Amino acid sequence: MSTLVLALIAGAAIGMALGALGGGGSVLAVPALIYLLGFSPASATTAALIIVAATSATALYAHARDGNVAWRTGFLFALAGIGPAFLAGAAAGRLPPAVLTGAFSVLAALSALRMLRPTGSEPAGRVRPARAAGAGAGLGAVTGFLGVGGGFLAVPALVGVLGLRMKQAVGTSLLVISLNSLAALTARTGADGDLRWEVIAPFAGAAILGAWDGKRLASRITGQALQRVFAFVLLAVAAVMLIDVIV
Known about the structure:
This protein is mainly alpha-helical. It has ten helices and no strands.
């Protein structure tokens, strides 16, 4: 199978996850770029940020059109993460590939287990600024360090810490992802000279189109079913990456 076809298939799948769940697809972007398309771990995390930023911004427009974005809350949450995203993005390029791959596999496994855990349906009723700032800063650091948008962490935080409804949390997480990804990309400007734009461009294009399909899919299938399927896929990816580091 050609590199272009693989990039289009992977991009479409990741875009659908972002559009449907408000995150999660970016966690698959890095392993797809490494194992399917031959990127180094450092280049894969940078390329993933480019793809995630473009796809999230497109999906954000679709959710904003339906009134499912809490703009002020999202900007405040993202603001706390911009500094950590910038610093972590600068540090990531100086770490050994095995460290990045190992950290990513652990995070992917923990995220999958969190998705499989039952959650309460009632959001918190009161926003606690200190907790919100801490959650935003942690999310920004993860974004910068591992090249993921962090929506799989942002959605639970926006519901549990900031008290948003699930649909609002999905839309608002895309705003947070877009801003954090851009901050992390700024820190990495000029650091990676081996980015293959002939692969990144079609990958991002397919992801953007997939995000629209994901939003439509989310209206037909329960969020819990989508989340469980994605969690099992994520566990499999984490296991493959961890074995690769150990062996």
